[in-house]
Sequence to fold (296 residues):
Amino acid sequence: MAQAWKCSGLRWSADGPVLMWDGGRGSALSRGKQVAFGVADGGVRTCVGARGHPCAVRAVVSGRSTGARCEECARLDRAHSVAADTIADDPRPYHVYLAWFGPGMVKVGITALERGPARLLEQGAVCFSWLGAGPLMAARRAEELLRAALGVPDRIPYADKRAVRSALPGTEDERAAEIAELHARAVALREWPESLTREPFRPVDHVGVFGLAGLPAAVGEVRELVAGGVVRGELVAAAGPDLHLMSGGEGGGAVVVLDTRLMTGWGLVPAESGARVLDVPVREFRRTPSVQEGLF
Fold:
């Protein structure tokens, strides 16, 4: 029987996306690479634990969960988390940023200064700009200020991000236009926290990094992995935790999105060579019919 590997998620480095495995080994992913793996027959998906510690009971978790944690481990993981707003004494400086994922999809967020743009790559931000830098609580106040004063959300659903990646504006200036306007309004707010230094608008575009230029529209997304299932396809783009895989025959095919967070907790094995196939449940995207402007 082939050795089973445990995936610990997708990480972004300066060289691109890397699939990480328990034990620290990584598999670099480049566009055109064949992504192929199977789920061990008879296997179950088990909780990945919390904050570097294994789950005490090795609880079985849902195949559709992107967190791959049981209720108790999820609680422990969020008990001391900046993202969950359960920590207020982190002495590190933080960046406040504006991130754009597509037309009408702008969010505000914070990330530790030392992490650089990694958080933006992990979220699949198509372009972004820093807004300010300073202590954690000042960054939190700025985040809340933008939500209250300008109506900028702090979350964009991944389903919404995936829906627009193949139909983005063609130039960097067009993609940066919305955050440029919001940046100017944000730094002009009178309630801006005094201890947060304003940063100039300098947009960073990730279309080239993610491989989104000319990206074919995806027809669906992997809903979950299942025991005995197989995923085999050509990587055409990667954004955030998502891999856009071309599956189907060599003369054609269709793009399906795999959220790599669905891979954690499973025992994964090498897939035998063969055609590009997705032998796992896939949810097809609904196509919005075009509106006819006249009878003829």
